[in-house]
Amino acid sequence: MKRTIQFIAAGLMTLSLTLHFSACTEQSPLTPELSETQSSGFKILKVKNPSLKKEFERSRWIGPFGGAIVVGTPGHGISRLSVPFGALSTWIQINFWWESAGFLEGGADFSPHGTKFNLPVRVELSYKRADLTGVNEDNLEIRYYNETTGQWELIGNQVDKVKKVVIGYTDHFSRYAIGAE
Fold first, then answer.
1. Phi, psi of 171 (to 5 degrees)
2. What share of the chain in percent tops pLDDT 70?
3. Could you tell me if 80 and 69 are in contact, meaning their C-beta atoms sit under 8 angstroms apart?
4. CATH code for 30-180?
5. What is the rounded distance in angstroms from the CA atom of residue 74 to the CA atom of residue 147?
6. How much of the chain is helix, strand and coil, in % rounded to 5?
7. What angle do CA 87, 66, 1 make, to 5 degrees?
């Protein structure tokens, strides 16, 4: 998918940028092969009602002063990425794709992939529409998919039962999911 953004600088000229997002394709950024937990025992949450599938996507420029991107609705749950002051040395356009229901409950993809941060950024993923049958809510975790090892690696397990979110911290962008062992 292409997006064109125009900037007008002091009325003197217009600069157009066409940005390509791999996470904006027709396919979900979290492809079916990522549902497999390999040998880790990590089980990704499933959706309670697959007919309520909803995907959210938002892009925002964030720089050295930090900022946040919020996606979702009260009905589907609210997920957030918070970048603190000093975590970035330059301005970048961050894309946050989040699936509130469907193949992977709470699946999220942040891009551009490979982005590294000077300080940890806070990731809050909602599990509001997740099927918690057989899962202890206190044991929920956020993990990222390590493409090198093929494993889901823990970034956090702080559960906010009021907001229905799991909180974790990361220093890089990847694919993330909520689940439990």
1. -115, 10
2. 69
3. yes
4. 2.60.220.30
5. 32
6. 5, 55, 40
7. 95
Question: What secondary structure letter does DSSP report for 109?
Answer: E
Q: Which two tokens stand for residue 133?
A: 């049958």
CA dist 41 and 34 (Å) reads 14
| Closest to 173 measured CA to CA, from 117, 132, 105, 107 | 117
Contacts of 170 (CB under 8 A, 6+ apart): 117, 120, 121, 123, 144, 155, 176
Spell 85-115 as b/e; 16+ CB within 10 A means b.
Answer: eebbeeeeebbbbbbbbbbbbbbbbbbeeee
pLDDT tens for each residue of 55-79: 778 899 999 999 999 988 888 788 8
Q: Cα(171)–Cα(158) distance, rounded to whole angstroms? A: 17
Look-up of token digits 């940005």: 19
DSSP 8-state class, residue 158: E
The residue type found at 59 is S
Count of CB atoms within 10 A of residue 24's CB? 17
Model confidence, pTM: 0.74
Q: Which two structure tokens, joined as six digits, stand for 40?
A: 């880790």
- Which positions of the chain have pLDDT values less than 70? 1-40, 47, 49-54, 99-106
